What we know:
599 residues, alpha/beta, six-stranded mixed β-sheet, 20 helices, 23 strands, 34% helix, elongated
Amino acid sequence: TTMIRGAISIVGRRSGTIGGSNFFAAASTATGRRPISATAFSAISARTSPTLQSSVGLDSDDEGEAMRPNNCHGSLTKIVATIGPTSEQLPVLQELVHAGINVMRLNFSHATVEEVELRTTNLKACKGRHAPASELPCYGGPTGTPEDGPDNNVRAILLDTRGPEIRTGKLANDHSGHEIVTFEAGATVTLHTDEVWADKGSTNADLYVNYANLHKSVVPGMKVLLDDGAIILTVTAVESNKDYHGTVTCAVENTGELRSRAGVNLPGAETDLPAMSEKDKIDIKYGMTKDVDFVAASFIQNAESVRDIRKYMQDCARELGWHASQPLPLIISKIESTTGVKNFDEILEESDGIMVARGDLGVEIPIQTVTNAQKEMVAACNAAGKPVIVATQMLESMAKNPRPTRAEVADVTNAVYDGADAVMLSGETAKGRYPVDTVKMMSNIIKSAEKFENRRDDLVIPHIGKWKTTDNQAEITLAKSAVTAAQERDAKAILVLTSRGTLPRFVSAYRPAIPIISFCPNGKVARQLMLNRGVHPVIGLNGVSMPKRPIRAIRHAVEMGFVKEGDDVVVATMEADEDMGTIATLKVATVPEGVLSDS
Length: 599
């Protein structure tokens, strides 16, 4: 156990790789978690019982507090929301922004160019609480309606690619696109990869699959899952002697119906799928013309896939005439296959962030191990100081119902406890009946979890960054010191002055329990900080001299409702000096009286 002056404790440092079984091996020993005796249980009960009432919110109005208009800074854990037909119009999207979304996800598996244009235009038209500091407070100006401008709302845009998916072909005689075929348990089906079968159309006896090397990836006894596992096939024979287009014969395990172009999963199989499909390349380049902030890359298999995507974006930037200093979209690698899990460590090293995509992952690996994989991936991202999104079916029932299930509430709560930087909504906000209520509910769940986490940190293991590299060592040290100082002084906010966004990311990685207000030079830097836990980017302080920036930052923090007179704050910045190069500066201050009246 390591303690840094009482500010940051690391209990049972996790070690090992994602694929290894020893990832949490030391945790129970290091934290002293043994079977609880009756005597020990009584002692624990005596200590915890007085706080149980407050832990379940019986002594406070958690929901009312969360929804008060002056609760500007909201939660620390971010919300990514998929925007679709039920949420793309400006009035609804504006409500979603006010309810708490930080990043808009555009699913390029379905979205058309026209839909993307509408959604990006409407998001930029929304007025958000992260408007330029000069417009203030919470949602922009004093009345919540600042003057229109390009940076009135710095919420980010995430482009989610379709990825190099494996799919079945079009069914024979499916002219309407709604035809289905029925597979009977015990029947035999032959899988073909030759384009001739794509032209013929698929049946329940002969099914086209669009992966030419299928016969090189499976062996008898392996499973082939159709339509997210709705139909399970077991491989019985493979034409493995063929170089191209060998057939795969399977036995049907269960009765089910199949539509055209259904998804295909190969649990445990090693594939040689490319990093990007041709559609992905078109979509990524188009997204760069719309200045998207993140690219969520689907079905990432290894580090080379991430490098391929980054190189492609660099090529696109040159073709589009971008200046060399213009930031590329950050790559969020989606882990949703067996190969991705096996190669997680190298993928994390190359990526800017990770999405735990539990949908396909729950089909690719045994479903009972998905939660284990989630915890390991989140912990590894925390240790690396990179943002991680937990996604898929978090509040799925709210697509149809106004309230979530208890299990869904527990799922979101545990993602917060695990250390997720962000949690994601998919169909709930894209096509569900209650998109605004869903975001409000998720926001309330997050706030409740974070409040409990702060009150009972003995029940939640902390997750903080621990870097092996010497790169950015000055900023890492400054970030660590800022969080330590904030904890010891019971500061209400950490103010970070940044030019590139690096310093606030390091501060976030040390997981302070207070807002990190990051003053950024432009919208791009601000938006690419929106996934990092606790970071509230603000565009401001441009043209302000270095000596005056700390007090101006404090004034803006007061105007935005983050702090008030008498509160302690920590100010961290990397300052350029003609004689000494870059100087790391850390200041601890008390918000003075009359700070808003000072000129």
